[in-house]
Backbone:
């Protein structure tokens, strides 16, 4: 991992979505989409959907009016009028078909662009310098980021598009057909015990009562589906993570004959998924009693509601069918909440997961607001200094016994520490990944520092791209690649420099380590910091690495953090890393309880 010492971690203020309410979470999504490159396309798609839905609503009004002459012609057995009305139906239905296809295309494109905008925003925030690392080490709040950005973001955008278009359509149809129903029943009078009671707009109120009772009962039966969906997604993510972990370490598992043990762990994760799904199934079953019951009764409800008008002689048979159609449209629009309750619960749970993840990404630099920070400063070129360094962690304080350390260009220093003292933590602090603690680190301004972790990272791509990473391959002379490989005994790979490799698994562990040092030869940085890398090498590879450090990188300042004193000929000084568990203990980070979060707002 390479960086310029002048680069600083990008900070950001807490997003208002840190609050857990529905409105703030929707605001989070809207802000992310508004700031995305897809904003203009989303606005155009939204406008197109509005126009198409409005035109569809008008077409359905015309189709509803068509019921009266068509069914009246049937009741009077007028063949000519019947055929004429069939022609009208073909025109209206054809226009509605075109509008349906247009709405489908616009809806699918909206899903695509919503996902592009949201995932782009999440990736950009997640991949700011050091954020992904700090989030990964922040406990459960940063668990399974791949699941949040891939599956949860996809599911959220698809549900948002479907529900949004459905709500818009239901609202337009409601406003359109309320007028039709009111006109049909505006002069309705009920006769009770010989008295005439005027009920203007009787069928509108009947539709409101019918749909309102269904909505209240549905909420009562299914309000807990949000929490159950959220729990199910969390358990699904845990199972997926476990499966990926086993697949990545299958060699070690097979060598240890640990398949049975891993199978038991996977079965435990699966059992948690199944438990969450059983709770969800129970909730959906209760909700189905309401939604299905109202669904079946809806077959006759419009006729029953319009029957008083028909039997009083105020409606013809065609008028009855028109009234029944209008009633269906109104109550269907009012029952949108009922019909989509389980989907809304699913959407709400997914929105919660994405909002919590985005909040964690944006506020990860402030996860420990009570703890002081290690100062990362820039100083004169050719010099690196460490003063009063104390590193806070959950296990206590890690510090250098030497309170002030000054390193000049070309100097080599070995930092020794016992097992468990926090050597990798010191490595992360020097790299600027772990900010919590006290003291200051002054790095040389304008000079590149290369960091060598114990397990080198090999990005997918060609061998040339792996060596040049993170710079572009054309940043170096062609001959430099072959020279770097030959210095580490990898000259046989030179003909395959432009061969594309799927991942680091295409190289053996020894080849990856040697390739990481070949990358150092190619980049020739003025400073290198190692995390106990030399302790993992032996044989010819170790000899070549020592020769490279002694000759190719003889001008580089080197800090090697390791367990024991080794290779004394390389180092001019030894520093000591110690631990004090009683001081600067960093509190554990705990995310807000999911239940409290989804219940708010």
Residues:
């Amino acid at each position: 991992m390479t960086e310029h010492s002048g680069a600083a971690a990008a900070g950001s203020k807490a997003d208002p979505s840190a609050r857990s309410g529905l409105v703030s979470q929707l605001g989070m999504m809207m802000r992310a989409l508004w700031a995305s490159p897809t904003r203009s396309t989303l606005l155009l798609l939204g406008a197109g959907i509005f126009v198409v839905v409005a035109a569809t609503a008008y077409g359905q009004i015309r189709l509803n009016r068509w019921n009266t002459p068509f069914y009246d012609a049937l009741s009077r057995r007028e063949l000519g009028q019947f055929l004429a009305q069939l022609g009208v139906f073909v025109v209206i239905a054809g226009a509605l078909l075109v509008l349906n296809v247009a709405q489908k295309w616009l809806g699918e494109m909206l899903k695509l662009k919503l996902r592009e905008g949201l995932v782009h925003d999440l990736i950009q925030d997640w991949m700011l310098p050091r954020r992904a690392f700090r989030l990964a080490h922040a406990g459960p709040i940063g668990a399974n980021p791949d699941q949040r950005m891939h599956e949860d973001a996809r599911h959220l955008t698809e549900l948002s598009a479907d529900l949004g278009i459905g709500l818009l359509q239901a609202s337009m149809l409601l406003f359109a057909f309320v007028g039709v129903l009111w006109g049909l029943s505006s002069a309705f009078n009920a006769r009770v015990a010989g008295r005439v009671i005027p009920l203007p707009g009787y069928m509108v109120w009947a539709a409101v009562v019918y749909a309102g009772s269904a909505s209240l009962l549905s909420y009562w039966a299914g309000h807990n589906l949000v929490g159950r969906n959220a729990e199910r997604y969390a358990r699904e993510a845990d199972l997926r993570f476990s499966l990926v972990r086993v697949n990545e370490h299958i060699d070690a598992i097979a060598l240890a004959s640990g398949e049975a043990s891993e199978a038991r762990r996977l079965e435990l994760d699966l059992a948690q998924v199944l438990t969450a799904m059983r709770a969800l199934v129970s909730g959906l079953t209760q909700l189905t009693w309401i939604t299905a019951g109202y669904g079946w009764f809806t077959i006759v409800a419009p006729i029953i509601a319009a029957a008083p008008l028909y039997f009083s002689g105020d409606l013809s048979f065609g008028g009855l069918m028109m009234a029944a159609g209008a009633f269906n449209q109104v109550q269907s629009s009012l029952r949108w909440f009922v019909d989509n309750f389980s989907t809304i619960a699913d959407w709400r749970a997914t929105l919660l997961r994405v909002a919590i993840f985005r909040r964690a990404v944006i506020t990860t630099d402030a996860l420990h607001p009570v703890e002081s920070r290690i100062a990362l400063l820039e100083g004169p070129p050719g010099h690196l200094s460490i003063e009063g360094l104390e590193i806070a962690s959950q296990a206590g304080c890690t510090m250098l016994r030497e309170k002030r350390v000054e390193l000049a260009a070309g100097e080599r220093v070995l930092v020794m520490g016992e097992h468990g003292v926090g050597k990798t933590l010191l490595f992360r602090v020097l790299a600027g990944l772990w900010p919590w603690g006290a003291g200051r680190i002054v790095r040389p301004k304008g000079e590149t520092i290369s960091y060598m972790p114990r397990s080198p990272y090999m990005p997918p791509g060609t061998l040339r791209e792996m060596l040049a990473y993170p710079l572009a391959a054309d940043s170096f002379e062609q001959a430099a690649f072959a020279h770097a490989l030959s210095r580490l005994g990898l000259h046989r790979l030179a003909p395959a420099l432009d061969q594309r490799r799927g991942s680091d698994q295409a190289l053996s562990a020894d080849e990856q380590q040697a390739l990481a040092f070949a990358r150092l030869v190619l980049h020739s940085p003025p400073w290198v910091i190692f995390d106990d890398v030399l302790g993992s090498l032996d044989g010819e590879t170790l000899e070549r690495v020592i020769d490279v450090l002694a000759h190719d990188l003889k001008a580089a300042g080197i800090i090697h953090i390791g367990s024991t004193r080794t290779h004394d000929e390389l180092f001019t000084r030894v520093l000591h890393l110690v631990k004090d568990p009683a001081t600067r203990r960093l509190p554990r980070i705990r995310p807000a309880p999911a239940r409290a979060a989804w219940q708010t707002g």
